[in-house]
């Protein structure tokens, strides 16, 4: 029999856990693929696992208000560690498992971490190496025992042993667990998530149980989510999106969270699970489309013609059919045939056959990419939010989707535009504070209680919010045109050959751009033409690569020429970088957002060369390798001029 809390006192995640164990004890709560086999835990089993772990932490001295760091891939036991900390009135601090040592040491120190739960030997080794920089970690529990047999450090204990310790503690203190859960309050901080640090050192965003539950409940009601949903949990646990979708909404609705075997098996596991509710950042949807286009290039002539024919049908009427708008009978028949021959098999290959609702966020998605998925019947929508708002500000209602907007204010959220164009937000799903940063908290929350997002946006006549760019990144050209680099970059990244782009043009006469090519897509394109290359630097320098990217940029320029506000921001010159932009080199955040200021400083010589009219420029760049070594990559980069177009007006 499952015990329940004695005094409701408002919803918290531990109380939700106990409710599910009572109301749906046998329903699958978590699945994990291990050695090719899916393991399943129902809600009553999860309750028992969390209780044992929480009592184990208490036996080690973990107390209310303390921080528990969690490091590893998405694993059920790591989610249970978050719950266990919260059951004790503690605060979960998920960390990026691929973060370099310096970033990890900063978070450990800033959050004053003494307890850590990690996935495996790799993370244990990293923490042990960090002892010199941050000696405060006193207790490390590891989930995967492989390779740990000869580790004898006093800080270490296996997850299994910690739970055994907890069961002994629970027997000796039978009321302790429920007393701890009952002591929790909705306003208590549940999780601390660190910002990506695009403009400085990451800040710890303190989110309460009430804030995350408000965001989760609002989104669940908006999209009619139930306990019948299946979600694939594969995005970093340290990211706010995963905390909303895979943690908060799972505990609010009781749906099933599925964890893949590894990062390499995500796409296969996605097909096996067939989620009904799916979330991915634009980059994942871009990569999916890239893989489709590569496969079609390798297909036979008949198959290619069929694909392109039915994709044209989908582009013409697919979105209207998804939104249940009137479509001619002939088009309906053609689309039905396309669904049988192309769209259905394509969605099945991508693992999206059962998806009822799919979301993307984290960065703007190109309208063409957005249209592609909706045209084949995937109900892909955008949401808008931030770490500080529990990723909950705007949502797109079914049947009222605009490709160039992020939707309308979500239930319970107030959104307004400040005089300088900045988007301001007020809701129950807002941060409590930045940890140990009252100055930073005061900077972003004004006297009226509005959070200043730092994004520039406008409302259209239908009440949809359009995000132009980060307010700090929006500038002006010398001729007065608005310069929104992210808007231009997203158009470039629609092409499968372009992985990343960085545009420059603020307070200049023209726009220039750095391009990172997708080595898989471009490599495949070169190989089919019998062109050999020896690695990324060689591939990036090929004349054929430049010709290919030139075509893509010309298409973007032609598109920009049709937009009254953006026609003056067409790209005049570009170069293909000799190395991929990398979080380990501080060029991207862990969520793969461009660190513009850092890139502008690091590659200043290239920017100067583009604006000086040079046709090439030599550069040598320091890079960090995966094993921690450093080295130099040098190249003589070509700089190309691109065709631009006179401003046009789109047809009505």
- Supply the CATH class of the domain at 13-212: Alpha Beta
Give the low-pLDDT segments: 4-8
End-to-end gap: 66 Å
Count of DSSP helices? 21
Q: Any idea of the CATH topology of the domain at 13-212?
A: Rossmann fold
What layout of secondary structure does this protein have?
Elements: H1 13-23, E1 28-34, E2 37-42, H2 43-60, E3 67-71, H3 76-87, E4 91-95, H4 101-110, E5 115-118, H5 121-129, E6 139-142, E7 156-158, H6 159-172, H7 176-183, E8 189-194, E9 204-208, H8 209-222, E10 230-232, H9 240-253, E11 256-259, H10 266-273, E12 277-279, H11 282-298, H12 301-322, H13 329-350, E13 357-360, H14 367-375, E14 380-384, E15 394-395, E16 408-409, E17 414-417, E18 422-426, E19 433-434, H15 438-444, E20 451-459, E21 465-470, E22 475-476, E23 482-483, H16 485-493, E24 498-504, E25 511-517, H17 519-527, H18 536-541, H19 543-560, E26 571-576, H20 596-602, H21 604-611, E27 616-624, E28 630-638, E29 640-641
Parallel strand pairs: 1-11, 3-4, 3-5, 5-6, 6-7, 10-11, 12-13, 13-14, 25-26
Antiparallel strand pairs: 1-2, 8-9, 9-19, 14-15, 15-16, 17-18, 18-20, 20-21, 22-23, 24-25, 26-29, 27-28
Helix pairs in contact: 1-2, 2-3, 2-6, 8-9, 12-13, 12-14
